[in-house]
Design brief:
With 64 residues, the chain is an all-alpha fold.
Length: 64
């Protein structure tokens, strides 16, 4: 039965990596959402066009 034992010694590293990813993703989307009106004003671009700033990294990461 020794071969069926599961090693849980690294479970906290996995949890920390997942938590950090969720945290950074939340911070990133918050920063972009706050910056969108400024980008619209400074670039004199329509809001729909500037919104792709937020969607582009998601699309790129998904297609990669």
């Amino acid at each position: 039965m020794l071969g069926n034992e599961v090693d849980y010694s690294r479970k906290w590293y996995v949890m920390a990596a997942v938590a950090m990813g969720i945290f950074l993703s939340t911070i990133d989307s918050s920063i972009v959402n706050v910056a969108l009106p400024t980008l619209v004003n400074d670039l004199h671009a329509p809001f729909a066009l500037v919104q792709w700033v937020w969607y582009w990294p998601i699309c790129w990461a998904w297609l990669r």
